[in-house]
Specification:
By secondary structure, this protein is an alpha+beta fold. The chain contains 2 helices and 9 strands; from the N terminus they run H-E-E-H-E-E-E-E-E-E-E. Strands 1-2-6-3-9 form a 5-stranded mixed beta sheet, covered by helices on one side. This is Carboxypeptidase-like regulatory domain-containing protein.
């Protein structure tokens, strides 16, 4: 019986390592009361983000219109309903997830001088996903 117990404990530890390893690919950050994480470059980071997606109630995705090509280096600012800036960062990849208190927010993003805004309402159990897509750049 003791041997079975030890085997089960060993298996639990063994199977918990992949989840820990995936979370180590991307580090969460905190600004004030907002915790966020960004990344998604490459399949390893995308998989790691999907594992922890449910821990965040605001999901942002950045891409190019019509192609669906992901983009990074997007400046992100989240303000509350009073206009106070709660978080400002540059996304490390095409996905940014944030933990916000319930309320109404404005998400402002900028890429290469092009600015876009969207409103987000976060409830106590509701998650909100916003996508931002920029036009394709023309080669001269």
């Amino acid at each position: 019986m003791k041997r079975i117990h030890l085997t089960l404990i060993f298996l639990c530890i063994l199977f918990s390592f992949p989840a820990v390893a995936e979370q180590e690919l991307i580090k969460s950050q905190t600004q004030g009361e907002v915790t966020f994480i960004s990344g998604g470059i490459g399949s390893d980071e995308q998989n790691a983000l999907q594992v922890i997606r449910a821990d965040y109630n605001l999901h942002l995705l950045f891409s190019i219109k019509d192609t669906g090509e992901y983009v990074s280096d997007v400046r992100v600012r989240i303000t509350d309903s009073s206009g106070n800036t709660l978080m400002e960062t540059v996304a490390d990849g095409p996905m940014l997830f944030a933990k916000l208190k319930p309320g109404r927010y404005t998400v402002t993003v900028e890429r290469r001088g092009q600015v876009a805004k969207q409103s987000a309402t976060i409830g106590s159990t509701k998650r909100t996903s916003l996508s931002f897509a920029w036009p394709q750049e023309q080669d001269n």
